[in-house]
Write a structure and sequence with these properties.
Chain lengths: 116, 114
Amino acid sequence: ETGVTQTPRHLVMGMTNKKSLKCEQHLGHNAMYWYKQSAKKPLELMFVYNFKEQTENNSVPSRFSPECPNSSHLFLHLHTLQPEDSALYLCASSQDPGQYLNYGYTFGSGTRLTVV
Amino acid sequence: DAKTTQPPSMDCAEGRAANLPCNHSTISGNEYVYWYRQIHSQGPQYIIHGLKNNETNEMASLIITEDRKSSTLILPHATLRDTAVYYCIVRPAYSGAGSYQLTFGKGTKLSVIP
């Protein structure tokens, strides 16, 4: 366990379904992130939240909708996904960035999503 | 685009030191070098980072050349559990637009062989 917990570990959903991925951390971190890792491709940053406020959205389609109710929890709501959205979705957290970025990220184990 | 270049794969005998190179010839003075690894089907794991000086922790050592254009991650006594993809990442030391981004490249797949 890394301190960042993602549920579910595996998810199979149809293209018309609505589902949510959950991420939880109790490391006292204030920044949380969603990453996507498709087969044979590098990790891609999707969203960044700092103190519950979204600070970055890397041109992610609107069928992915993040939610950060507090600094410890992060959700990714999914609807009308496509088969090419099948991937490993990783959540990460880090300390309050502040001015100096002298810290590492802690990643969860990911949710393996398959869209059928 | 990733700002680092790494060999796609390396082998290392169990118990020997694994030396993983990384080129970052365009690194600027205010950028750190970070190393992460990803064991199959798990999330990436932070290993170590440095700015100018060599660094050591319980997992590994990081050697940065004097001109900072390349670095080497050293796992002193590789075990089978060290088999993973190792990512070298360059990242700004100060906050600003895009600074939250950890840009992962393809990394080096290290295979530790019994």
